[in-house]
Design goal:
Elements: E1 14-19, H1 29-45, E2 49-54, E3 69-72, H2 77-84, E4 90-91, H3 94-98, H4 102-111, E5 125-129, E6 140-143, H5 146-158, E7 164-168, E8 173-180, E9 185-189, H6 191-194, H7 215-229, E10 233-240, E11 246-253, H8 261-268
Parallel strand pairs: 1-2, 1-3, 3-4
Antiparallel strand pairs: 5-6, 5-7, 8-9, 8-10, 10-11
Length: 276
């Protein structure tokens, strides 16, 4: 029904492009818009007509039949509910976006034996909001010990957040990855090398040591997860331990690709659904 419907064979294609609500782009509003517009520009260059809207202001009475496909960065529940009713190819699949909620994703990763941090450790803990993607710096907190962790959990509860994920802090290199499923596009970056950061959490792992590891294995793991979740445009974070083993600590739908935006846009328009 959605992103795997096949190739669109048309001389022209009508596309609806939905920008993410700003609350889901903390410190990244311009970057998130920029990658969508990079894709839009390429589609327009191929003769597509594209209507760009924000999910914060989806026009009333928008007629789905006037579009051949939908590109969506949307995360609002009402956006996802509307997308689920459409009989159109959609990238990213709204069902997949829902599965990117942290607690749902965490349980899925455990079932699929994707390497994740343990819940117990001796180097501190991470407390992460589980019902949605992080919207503020306070949705992802580091706790130095169990006492600090309990205090952080109480803070979540005072904010009305009862759905959360706890994981042990893993010392090692923090690596960000970006991918577009089925296109061969996969890029790795060390955020402490270039200084780009959303909330500054990279400081807890310190400067990258560039420990040797298998990038091919990380790509295979990330793509297996992307396929299982069913999001074609994805990104995330991994920790590489000194011995070269790794675990995934974050995975999300349609990141900003700020380090490789133009390359990512080229890959996105190569997704099977967008070929015509």
């Amino acid at each position: 029904m959605h992103q795997s419907q096949g190739i669109i064979h048309k001389s022209q294609c009508a596309v609806l492009a939905i920008l993410r609500a700003e609350r889901f782009s903390p410190n990244s509003v311009a970057q998130d818009k920029a990658v969508m517009m990079a894709v839009v520009n390429r589609l327009q260059g191929r003769g597509c007509s594209v209507q760009v809207v924000s999910e914060d202001a989806l026009p009333q009475g928008l007629e789905p039949s006037s579009f051949d496909l939908v590109l969506s960065m949307g995360r609002l529940p009402e956006t996802l509910a509307w997308l689920k009713t459409l009989d159109r190819p959609i990238i990213n699949n709204p069902f997949g976006v829902e599965r990117c909620a942290r607690s749902i994703l965490h349980n899925l990763m455990l079932r699929e034996q994707i390497p994740v941090p343990p819940t117990q450790g001796t180097c501190g803990y991470w407390l992460k909001r589980g019902d949605a993607a992080a919207q503020t710096p306070d949705d992802v907190l580091f706790a130095a010990d169990e006492q600090a962790l309990q205090s952080a959990i109480e803070g979540f509860r005072r904010r009305g957040i009862s759905d959360y994920v706890v994981s042990a802090h893993i010392p090692g290199d923090l690596v960000k990855f970006y991918g577009v499923l089925g296109t061969g596009f996969f890029r790795l970056f060390y955020p402490t090398d270039d200084g780009q950061s959303k909330f500054g959490h990279e400081a807890h792992n310190g400067p990258a040591h560039h420990y040797a590891f298998s990038a091919a294995d990380l790509q295979q793991t990330a793509e297996r997860l992307a396929a299982r979740v069913d999001v074609a445009v994805y990104g995330g974070d991994a920790i590489v331990r000194p011995d070269g083993t790794f675990c995934l600590i974050d995975f999300n739908d349609w990141p900003s690709f700020s380090r490789c935006r133009e390359e990512a846009a080229e890959a996105i328009v190569k997704i099977e659904t967008l070929k015509y």
